[in-house]
Structure formats: structure tokens, C-alpha cells
Design goal:
CATH class: Mainly Beta
Helix content: under 10%
Mean pLDDT: 91
Order of helices and strands: HEEEEEEEEEEEEEEEEEEEH
Number of domains: 1
Structural class: mainly beta
Shape: globular
Number of strands: 19
CATH topology: Beta-galactosidase, Chain A, domain 5
Oligomer: single chain
Radius of gyration: 18 Å
Strand order of the largest sheet: 6-7-9-10-19-16-15-12-13
CATH architecture: Distorted Sandwich
Number of helices: 2
Low-confidence stretches: 1-23
């Protein structure tokens, strides 16, 4: 490919006039609310997570400007001759839909109390094709102030793709959450000093030896994601939030694997909102319980 970036998502989620999102529709969202947090998925975007706020608050921290934003599954395979906005692309499954704004098909949606299950048929980000050899599932449960997500990706195709960095998952938040917070030291869960930075453009890489990262605002309030199987991430910020259309903050925990026949990939993600110290404390509790 002529474009060499730390991760392909840099280009896949650039703002495009032809991919501008439609205004949110109330009947497009399905919400869970347990009195601590309120979470919403967007039916027209493969049930990708499009809303996370404190219960009773109208301040949504998740950016869902287009089908490539949200908190969602995204995976990469071989270069396949596809074009994204006239640029060479590759096999790229996106839970929300394609870059032209076509949403992924929602195959199943069930809600029971504080649990939501969804199954969707992803689209190829560049070509817009529905990828019938694949499926994506998510089970979301609200557990006090923490959101527990179990993601599942299945591939029934016959082709073996090369190994590639995979986003587990892609996390997009509003641009006023401008400071990335994580621990990158050698003594995880020991209370060591957190690393704070404001990522630039294009992608930058980070270690996260406590397996979590968060974006916070000027008041140290924000959204964090803990992914036990990931110890590094890619990140960037687009725009500064001062009227820039499509501005956002982004990070994605990473792992590396190949899409191949019979693949069934499952992993856990935990989301929470609050001050940086609160986010870390909740994730530390989960990490201790996993031992």
C-alpha cells in the first residue's frame, strides 16, 4: 500500500463529506440504564455502542459521527484491491458499516434487564459489501458503574489472511476528552504514576501495562476501557474540538492475529466513566478478581 501508517484505522476513520452522519434518531437507539450508567447501542450501525453517560446525564462521551466511530469491533485481512476514497485498501470488517454511510445489518437484538445481546453482519469498510462469511456478536452487561462487554467474531470463509494488528475494540470519544491516561511502567497495579499525554495526528503507539487506557477532560473526568488481553494501543486526536467538524479522540487496544477458516475470536472489554483515579481503581478490582 502507498500509505504506510502505524494502523490502517487512521485512514479508515478519516472524516469524509460523503460519510457524514445523519442526526441521531430516538428510535435508532436501544438503551440500558442501571441507575449508575446509561449505555446505548445504535441499531442502524450494527448495534455498535453509541452512548455512554452517567445515569440521568445527557452528556454522551462516545463519538458516533459516522459508521466508523462508536465503540465497536473492527478487523483486518489481506490487501484485496478495494478502494477507500480512491485509496488502496484491504479486507476490513467493520461492525458499524462502511465509509459511505451504509450501516451494517442487525441480525438479532435481545434486551433483558441490564443485559443486551446483539448479532450483526459487518460490512467491508471500503467496498461496502456485506461480508456473509463473518458475524459479530456482543453481550453487554451493566455491573454497577462498569460495563462488561463480551465480543465474539466468527469467520466461516475459506481464505487465510495474513497476520495483522487488530483493534480490540475501536474506541471513539468526544474531542473535549483530550488527555490520554494510562500506566506504562514496569510495576502494574502498584499505584505507580500514570502517564498523561495529548496524542497528535496521525497514529501514535503506547504501552499499557495495566491493560487499560482512558481519555479525560480538563476536569480529569472521562471514559476508560480495560482489555485484559491487550498491553499496547494505537491512538490519535483529530481536530481540537473548537468547531472542527468531525473532531474526536481515539484509541484502540491491539492484538495480532490472522483471519483464517474456522476462526472464532472472543475477548472481554470493560468500560467505565469517572475521574482517572476512579477508573483505575475499578479496573484494578477486576484485575485482582481475575487472578
Amino acid at each position: 500500500m502507498p500509505i504506510r501508517m502505524p494502523l490502517l484505522l487512521l485512514c479508515s476513520l478519516l472524516v469524509s463529506a460523503s460519510a457524514a452522519a445523519e442526526p441521531p434518531q430516538n428510535d435508532d437507539f436501544v438503551f440500558l440504564d442501571n441507575g449508575h450508567v446509561k449505555l446505548g447501542v445504535k441499531k442502524s450501525s450494527g448495534a455498535g455502542i453509541a452512548w455512554l453517560s452517567a445515569s440521568g446525564s445527557e452528556r454522551n462521551l462516545i463519538n458516533h459521527f459516522d459508521r466508523g466511530r462508536l465503540v465497536q469491533q473492527s478487523y483486518y485481512g489481506k490487501e484485496d484491491g478495494s478502494l477507500w476514497n480512491k485509496l488502496p485498501w484491504r479486507y476490513n470488517l467493520v461492525q458499524g458499516g462502511d465509509w459511505r454511510g451504509k450501516g451494517a445489518k442487525l441480525l438479532e437484538l435481545k434486551v433483558e434487564k441490564a443485559v443486551l445481546f446483539a448479532k450483526s453482519l459487518p460490512r467491508h469498510w471500503a467496498s461496502g459489501k456485506e461480508l456473509e462469511e463473518t458475524s459479530m456478536e456482543q453481550r453487554i452487561e451493566l455491573q454497577d458503574k462498569v460495563v462488561h462487554i463480551r465480543y465474539t467474531f466468527k469467520y466461516s470463509g475459506e481464505e487465510t489472511h495474513p497476520e495483522h494488528d487488530q483493534e480490540i475494540p475501536a474506541v471513539f470519544v468526544e474531542p473535549d476528552l483530550n488527555t490520554l491516561v494510562l500506566y506504562d511502567g514496569e510495576k502494574p497495579w502498584s499505584g505507580g504514576e500514570l502517564h498523561r499525554s495529548q496524542p497528535g495526528w496521525p497514529n501514535e503507539g503506547r504501552k499499557m501495562t495495566e491493560h487499560w487506557a482512558a481519555y479525560v477532560d480538563k476536569d480529569d473526568f472521562g471514559l476508560g476501557a480495560y482489555v485484559p488481553v491487550a498491553d499496547r494501543l494505537t491512538c490519535y486526536r483529530f481536530g481540537d474540538g473548537n468547531g472542527k467538524k468531525g473532531a474526536c479522540s481515539y484509541f484502540a487496544p491491539l492484538t495480532k492475529f490472522a483471519i483464517k477458516p474456522g476462526l472464532a475470536w472472543e475477548y472481554d472489554v470493560y468500560l467505565t466513566i469517572g475521574k482517572a483515579a476512579e477508573i483505575r481503581e475499578r479496573f484494578a478490582t477486576i484485575a485482582a478478581q481475575e487472578k
